[in-house]
């Protein structure tokens, strides 16, 4: 249990940094007139390599490789439809500014990303599930 708590704390700290960077990218791109899809593509282009390096090194202490990066990228690309739906609902339907919609999307993605990042990066021992 202690291992899980320590890893969750490391994940939380790295994720806060990534979420702040994500929000800055969304807000700056939105202010420049980019569409919601353009905002998310820019964020993904920046955060996939940054998140992979930080999560693999700090959170999961896993070996970095191209295979690991592609696995992480595949897992995190599942965020794309989720964040688009959240931004569409919050920004386009509820009329919230990107200043409000971006942090809402970050909160929604926090738990989802923990599950997908664990699947992609956590070292696996024989007979143990990835989340241990």
Description:
This protein is mainly α and 132 residues long. 80% of the residues lie in helices and 0% in strands. It has helices at residues 2-31, 36-59, 66-77, 79-93, 98-121. Helix 2 (36-59) packs across helix 4. The longest helix is centred in the N-terminal third of the chain and has 30 residues, at 2-31. The radius of gyration is 15 Å and the shape is elongated. The termini are close together. The model has no long low-confidence stretch (mean pLDDT 87).
Roughly how many Å apart are the termini?
A: 9 Å
Shape: elongated
Summed over residues and divided by their number, the pLDDT gives a mean of 87
**Structural class per helix/strand content?**
mainly alpha
Helix content: over 70%
Task: Bin the strand percentage.
Answer: under 5%
Radius of gyration: 15 Å
Work out the number of β strands: 0
Q: How do the SSEs run, as a string of H and E?
A: HHHHH
Summarize the main sheet.
none
What distinguishing features does this structure have?
single chain; 132 residues; mainly alpha; elongated
Q: In short, what is this structure?
A:
This protein is an all-alpha fold and 132 residues long. It has helices at 2-31, 36-59, 66-77, 79-93, 98-121. The chain is elongated and about 45 Å long.
